[in-house]
Amino acid sequence: MNIVLLGAPGAGKGTQAARLVEEFGIAHISTGDILRAAVKAGTPLGLEAKSYMDAGELVPDSVVIGLVKDRLGEPDAQNGFILDGFPRTSVQAVALDSELSSLGRELDAAVAINVDPEAIVARLTSRRTCRVCGYIGSVKDETCPKCGGEMYQRDDDNETTVRNRLDVYAKATAPLIDYYRGCDLLVEIDGSLPVDEVYASVKSALSI
Ligand code: AMP
Questions:
Q1: How far apart (Å, rounded) are the C-alpha atoms in residues 199 and 15?
Q2: Mean local confidence (pLDDT), 156-165
Q3: Cα of 193 to ligand 1 centre, how many Å?
């Protein structure tokens, strides 16, 4: 199962990806998580990416494409993967197609999770993430309900940055919905429903 998850920031891609990974044991490739880990570790990649991320802008295509190519080569990605937050531009989508075809692999589906932008602003500004296991919760979670770790607010989950991320999504990423529709890979899901219902729709749309 090789899947791309599309949707605005805060649409629920990370949450749905975590469920799929837990149930089907495939690799979760989140470019946002990879970049945040690099920022935390203070690597040259992290130093380069941080200013873009803090402003809600996209990290340059060449950087992100290189990360994904490397990640697709790792052992755990050989039995299937979920790309979460990649591709985000048409250059990235074309690079992904070309990398997969050179690996003799192909996408099974592009799942677009749709949520109204104003609902996303409310969701993201109250989102809290576990520092230890990455669990995605809300301001109501004082500690992580999964592992007891500390919950924190991501630097880019403030309202100004969230609105910029939504603008960037509308301009650079939303056109990929038509791209994948044209490839006959698109499935669209209503992401405004409770998490369990969204997950049931994702599985039913993928016939899994
Ligand atoms: P996310 O966790 O997916 O919301 O990503 C957080 C931030 O990381 C984004 O706002 C971008 O700055 C950067 N980022 C993640 N994925 C990509 C990508 N595919 N292309 C460019 N920038 C990305």
A1: 9
A2: 96
A3: 24
| Per-residue pLDDT tens over the stretch 18-51 | 999 999 999 999 999 999 999 999 999 999 999 9
3-state percent breakdown (helix, strand, coil) of the chain, nearest 5:
50, 15, 30
19, 36, 50, 127: the catalytic one is 127
Going across the sheet that includes 186-190, the strands are 27-30, 81-84, 2-6, 109-114, 186-190
User: What pTM did the predictor assign?
Assistant: 0.93
Distance CA 104, CA 188 (A): 26
d(C-alpha 114, C-alpha 3), whole Å: 16
For 21, list phi and psi in degrees, rounded to 5: -65, -45
The 10s digit of each residue's pLDDT in 112-123 is 999 999 999 999
Q: Which atom of ligand 1 is nearest to the CA of 87?
A: 19
C-alpha R_g of the chain: 16
On whether the 2-26+79-115+170-206 domain is CATH 3.40.50.10160, my answer is no
**Domain regions of the chain by residue span:** 2-26+79-115+170-206
Candidates 50, 88, 123, 128; catalytic one:
88
User: And the tokens for 150?
Assistant: 């500390």
Catalytic-residue membership of 128: no
CA neighbours within 13 Å on the CB side: how many for 2?
16
Crossing angle between the packed helical segments 31-41 and 61-72, to the nearest 10 degrees: 100
Q: At 135, list the tokens.
A: 């669990």
